[in-house]
Amino acid sequence: MTSFGLDPRVHAATAAREVPDVGSSQWRLTWRRLRRNKIALVCAGVIVITVGLAIAAPAFAGITGHAANQQYPNTGLSADGIPVGPGRTFWLGADQLGRDLFVRILYGARISLFVGVVATAIGTVAGVGVGLVAGYFGGWIDMVLSRFIDSVLAFPYIVLGLALAAVFGPSLLIVMGVIAFFSWAGIARVVRGQTLAIKEREYIEAARSIGAGPLRIMFLDILPNLMGPVLVLATLSIPQAIIFEATLSFLGLGVQPPTASWGNILAGAQEYYTVAWWYLVFPALALLVTTLAFNLLGDGIRDALDPTTQRLFAVRRKPRGSRPRGGVRWDGSRLADAAAAPGAAGTEAGER
Amino acid sequence: MRLLIFLIRRVLAGIVVLWAVSLGAFLLFFTRPALSVARQIAGKEPTAAELELITKRLGLDEPLPVQYWQFLDRLLHFNFGYSYANGESVNTILAQDLPRTASVVVGGVVLWLIVGLGVGILSATRARGLFDRLATVGVLIGLSLPTFVIGELLLWGVFLQLNERGFTWIQNGYVGLSQGIVPWIGHMILPWITLASVEAAIYSRLSRTSLLETLGEDFIRTARAKGLSERRVIFRHAVRASLTPVVSQLGIDVGTLLGGVVVTETVFSIGGLGQDSVLAIDQGNLPVIIAFVLIAALFVVTANIVVDLCYALLDPRVRIA
User: In this complex, which of B31, B258, B284 lies closest to A158 when CB atoms are compared?
Assistant: First the structure.
């Protein structure tokens, strides 16, 4: 990671182990493994399509000729005021006001994805910062921050969401704030734990010995080694944020109608599912497909980063408890070479 | 004795937390100007004298420390004040709502633990088999759907379909236990499944991982080597040891559970604490909101102490900490 311009007179076996690292970074190896995982690739495709549909929402509104918040009581409702089902004019049916459900679901996707990504980004940055500081400095700083992390994790988030919505009135900004406030703690906990382990390594000591300051060590020496787990956690907390936004909007505390969001569409569906199944099923399906794709992609990235975990849906079956042979490990070293240098392999296996 | 000290310390810490929450709740009162509160209570076109009278009666014209003292005094006498919406005593609302919420929570938690641990144990002992794979798919779907969508889908897929076909045992809404246990279960079964779904998904995964890890340990090999039956190895040795990390997670998830209760009650119109708190927020009904926040905090603190006690009983090493 860090080079000090010293002439490395290292053991021959260790030197041989270092050679294959050149030219294939951890990320390239991860990408190579991820590419082999068909489920993860399909999920990435689904996410790209969802984002594309969300961006193209106005275009689809043009094609169908239905604006998102426009009511079409003449074509969208039957003679007795019941919404029409899926068909040629309303692709996924209409809601109780005669609005086009398909167009509204697309506009809802914009809100869901926006909230999911932005809230997760804020939460991730905050979580990484707090986790690094707590883990690196230790002592009373760690104690205070850890207590804070624990209490946030244990706090009933819906209750806080309710209280804040009561005070400030429901809005998208409050929703994102609440979601970010609850997503950083989980990330901070993991980052803190990993930092505690990493800061004891020799290269951190070496960095300190050449006069690197705490900020430099935290962000340039420790953080790059945490990017894997942080990426996995961030991917997995996007669907959580989407679910949370939908829940708050469902309770009437998030995005307010007539602006479409998956949560408030489904809130409307609650009164009409008896006569219009499409009103409930299609938004629910959109939500499920999106969150499932993010969850599976997160799992896929985790597997790609750490090939020693066993994939449940792997094509080839491996006997339980055996490690894959001849592959490449987490840190990019070859297993066969690692076996030649048992000391190095042993410490790494112990830390993982 | 150590356990007693541990308990006392936790209770004292819990009281401090409750006090902090009550202070936050008290400050909630000042997020709305006294005049707008008085207007809400007074109804249509109030005179200035009426508004002043209401402000005085609520004590909103007193200086802050006096108001805080009155607030604490009322709390310690378990008096939560009167609803801004219809002047009903908050205590009456609580008495009416508590059994409803308790019905949902108790059944939901029982189902959550049975299903979560059961599926986890079955998955771990048949790792990578058909059941394990199916369970993983189920867990993923459970984690990918919000609680309220699961509830709505159950209403549409089970309640509506069954009732259209003349099978009316499963119902929507709330019926007290006093009406008989069979109709009570019929009304409660869908809320229970809804409330348990997400938590059960998390727990089956958690207990599966934990049990798999334990099954790889030396003492399990020893237990097998001395000729114990597989059933005894798993339930007597492995499950007990693997339960500790699962129990430690319980305290954290009590908060999630509360959120689930709010959503479940709203979907199934149970009319308990959760649904009424959403209603209270819609109306800006502060006394009711504050009562609910305090009860939620009390519930979380108590549950955490109970969980820590269970943890200490399961794992003797914790008691010293």
Answer: B258
